[in-house]
Amino acid sequence: MLAASWAPLSPAERAVAIEVLTHGPVSRTEIARKLNLSAGSLTRLTKPLIESGLLIEEPTPVSAPTRQGRPSQPLDIVADSRYFAGFKITADMVYGVVTTLKSDIVADRAVPLRTRDPEYVADLVREMTEEFAAAFPRLAGIGVGIGGRIKGFSRAVASVFLDWHDVPFGEMVEERTGLPVVVENDVAALIESEAWFGAGRGLDRFAVLTIGAGIGYGLVIGGRLVRAANDGQGIGRRWIIDPNGPLTPDGVRGSAVSLLTIPSIRYQVRAATGRDHTYEEILALADAGDPPAARVMGEAARALGTVVAQIANFAMPQKILLAGEGVGLMDIAGPAVREAVLDNRDPLADPFVLETKVSDFNDWARGAAVLAIQILVLGRPKE
């Protein structure tokens, strides 16, 4: 399974390709205007992209002539010229998808993990990739999303969920598949996907907050994800919302992790009732007015609103996207969350959009595929 690849793109070619990938089909005039390029420069930059099969000139609508009378040929990405496999690895499952070059999911599969041993997981990814490649022979690369700290788009330095330490997972999968592999923190991958193709598309300042097994946060400014040395370290454990809040096995007392993550919420309800419940059951109980569940979810709602307000106050995004398995909280306590946001914001502060995305693990796997598209096709951006 050796992937055909494109020649490395120059920064200017990469900018053109990104514009077409995220907004295509788009006219040459619009590309030139957005990138401040002359018609001649744009022609020079697009020629190798078209010859390589990355871009295509769309048939020209009869009603769209230019001022000079020459038909305008919009440019678009050849979406099915290559396919990419994306994987999201959780503590007990591997979720895999195949996407087009435009990140549309065309196949998916989920397989339980019998063990978290890296060798076993790499073998499982290989098996799933082989199945995908049999159906999509033009599979060009693999993206893997893992909860934890990742180094060099390849090595899992630390993953609490998998109990991995310094695992060269990218190399392991490349050796088994013969395909180029990109490994990234799962939250970062999801954010890149939303910034390019989802809720953050076209925005200059965009933030994502994920709640589920853990807390994830990321900020996009000028179309670029802000990177930091502590990425993947789980800042929610020390993100204190209420110093008098609950003490749970994971996270400092009253932290975002203690108040908002699914394991902590289940722990609190179990401690109060002596019975174990799924997160969905707790949501239903709280919605029905069950006192212990309603108290725990009420505290969670106020905490979520406070966190959102803090992000808005300091990062000043145009939009904040809530995602992850825990966003069902908004279904039963959305008004309480929004009230807490208002309580922690200056009345004269600039407004922002708060959007909730009910996502599944295929969305996280798709994010990993988008990272592969970004890096393997377009090349890493200059730092």
How do the strands line up in the largest sheet?
5-4-3-6-10
CATH class of the largest domain: Alpha Beta
Helix content estimate: 40-55%
- H-E string: HHHEEEEEHEEEEHEHEEEHHHHEHEH
Assembly type of the chains comes to: single chain
**Name of the CATH architecture of the largest domain:** 2-Layer Sandwich
Q: Which spans have pLDDT < 50 for at least 5 consecutive residues? A: 62-67
Cα distance, first to last residue? 31 Å
* Helix-and-strand structural type: alpha/beta
- Can you identify the CATH superfamily of the largest domain? ATPase, nucleotide binding domain
- Spatial shape: globular
Approximately what portion of the residues adopt beta-strand conformation? 15-25%
What integer is the average pLDDT? 89
| Total of domains | 3
How many β-strand stretches?
15
Q: Helix count?
A: 12
Main β-sheet description: 5 strands, mixed
As a whole number of angstroms, the C-alpha radius of gyration is 23 Å
CATH topology of the largest domain: Nucleotidyltransferase, domain 5
